[in-house]
């Protein structure tokens, strides 16, 4: 995958001395200073804007106000403003976050708030990046393949504990903040060899599904680069849905790879006992 243009251009602006925030124009409000990355996709720079910050505002509100007041051509992607569509991902003060779920009162008021696009994906314009690589990755993962129904009426029987185990993974909103923060993609640009934490979550949801019979373990090792993950847990820390990506998805998948390819006893047993249908 093409490296995002001009890494250097993404560097956080030089630290500036703290400045007193301009006084509030009405009680409960203040003038907020923002440094927003402006780019046509081939380079760019931070530009400074000010707008009124009032009680209860989130960063996306401030961006919308700036669009309305002083930068009508400022591009940002959003849909729900409720933390559910996963489209307003950005880096706020250097941290991968959803703009619609980041409250202004959680950010320092005495320094400018920086807003820039995710770094792991190619820039398109301003805060918008091309995340289509993620959708191509998803197509490479073997889809759900249920075993035959357990009963003549076409229904299955499952243990509640097995159902509960994968439920966490289904909360993913595909914001790709975990992909953005992962150093394997962000710094080492291994997009061709590594599918990233979001898709280990997806693979885990399928692999651990109590009805699934497809085997993705070989692909995880050979095609999807799970060995590159060194379990730093950065992905887990930024997930707005609080999915325990590393402990509950990646580590169990790594264990399956070890069992399958590196444990001689398990390999021998598998010769006589292949993966049972619906193995959780
Ligand atoms: S735990 Fe693994 S997948 Fe998650 S950010 Fe770290 S290296 Fe990337
Ligand atoms: S796992 Fe979490 S951080 Fe990653 S895409 Fe899904 S919701 Fe976003
Ligand atoms: S606008 Fe939908 S998650 Fe932020």
Note the main attributes of this structure.
280 residues; alpha+beta; Ubiquitin-like (UB roll); Fumarate Reductase Iron-sulfur Protein, Chain B, domain 2; 2 domains; 5-stranded mixed beta sheet; two-stranded antiparallel ribbon; disordered N terminus; binds iron/sulfur cluster; binds FE2/S2 (inorganic) cluster
Explain this structure to me?
The protein has 280 residues and is an alpha+beta fold. It has two domains: 123 residues, Roll (Ubiquitin-like (UB roll)); 141 residues, Alpha-helical ferredoxin (Fumarate Reductase Iron-sulfur Protein, Chain B, domain 2). The chain has a five-stranded mixed beta sheet with strand order 2-1-5-3-4. Strand 1 and strand 2 form a beta hairpin. The longest helix is centred in the C-terminal third of the chain and has 18 residues. The structure holds iron/sulfur cluster (2 copies) and FE2/S2 (inorganic) cluster (FES). The site of one iron/sulfur cluster has 13 residues, from helix 8 and helix 9.
In short:
With 280 residues, the chain is α+β, with helices and mostly antiparallel strands. The chain has helices at residues 59-69, 132-140, 160-167, 177-181, 183-186, 197-207, 217-222, 234-238, 245-262, 264-272, and strands at 29-38, 45-54, 89-92, 95-98, 113-116, 123-125, 128-129.
């Amino acid at each position: 995958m093409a490296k995002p243009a001009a890494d250097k251009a993404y560097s956080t602006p030089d630290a500036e001395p703290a400045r007193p925030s301009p006084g509030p124009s009405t009680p409960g409000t203040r003038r907020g200073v923002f440094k927003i990355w402006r780019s046509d996709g081939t380079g760019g720079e931070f530009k400074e804007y000010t707008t009124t910050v009032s009680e209860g505002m989130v960063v996306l509100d401030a961006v919308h106000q700036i669009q309305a007041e002083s930068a009508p051509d400022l591009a940002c992607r959003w849909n729900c403003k409720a933390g559910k569509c996963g489209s307003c991902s950005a880096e706020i003060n250097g941290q991968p976050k959803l703009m619609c779920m980041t409250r202004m009162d959680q950010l320092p008021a005495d320094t400018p708030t920086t807003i820039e696009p995710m770094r792991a994906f190619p820039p398109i314009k301003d805060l918008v990046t091309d995340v289509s690589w993620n959708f191509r990755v998803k197509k490479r993962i073997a889809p759900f393949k249920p075993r035959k129904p357990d009963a003549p009426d076409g229904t299955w029987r499952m243990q509640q504990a097995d159902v509960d185990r994968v439920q966490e993974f289904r909360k993913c909103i595909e914001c790709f903040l975990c992909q953005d923060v992962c150093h394997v993609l962000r710094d080492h640009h291994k997009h061709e060899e590594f599918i990233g934490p979001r898709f280990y979550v997806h693979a885990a949801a399928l692999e651990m599904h109590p009805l699934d019979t497809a085997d993705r373990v070989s692909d995880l090792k050979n095609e999807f680069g799970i060995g590159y993950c060194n379990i730093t847990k950065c992905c887990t820390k930024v997930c707005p849905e609080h999915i325990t990506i590393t402990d509950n998805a990646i580590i169990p998948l790594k264990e399956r790879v070890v069992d399958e390819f590196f444990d001689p006893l398990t390999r021998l047993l598998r010769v006589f006992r292949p993966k049972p249908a619906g193995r959780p």
